[in-house]
Amino acid sequence: MEDVLINKNREYPGVELLEDHEIMVSVKDGDVHKLGLLFDRHAQGLFNYFQLQVRDRFRSEDLVQNVFYKILKYRHTFKEGADFRVWMYAIARNEKVNFFKHNRSSDEEVNPEQPDENSNNPENDLASKTDKKHLGRALERISPDSRELLILSKYTGLPYNRIAEIYDCTVGAIKVRIFRAMQELKAQFVNIAEE
Question: Residue 57: what pLDDT?
Fold first, then answer.
């Protein structure tokens, strides 16, 4: 991804070893310039979260900006000791829901041919490109809830207990839902491969 979203060279003296929740507490207490460090750490993950669901680079970038605007606006609601990524993805999830509510996009509007901005390795072989294309199409065909669960667990790397916090349910329920989502994805992948 281009440096449109992330400036890796930004310097924050003395905060590089701080945990996300510690930085967010500082932001909550009025040291809002430190939000830039959280942006640098998490903008790419958020962008991927939105891109895999919205399938539009510019809208995904806008949604990332919206999430950080909401983080700044609602910083007073962050609880000390809370997991920042759980709180951030809960906000992101609300932004995604609002986006789809206001931009009723049907499956026909999704462009599966949109290039993946992160895959500019010309050495990828044809089979790998075909599998990625099939996987992208399979993700589009599964239910939005299943898609989001797989993105949170497989693409953002959130552990099941953190996803359970976002969904406000048990870890066992999340495991079952992710298992079912994987089954749904596998079935769609096989269907696409046979087409």
Answer: 93
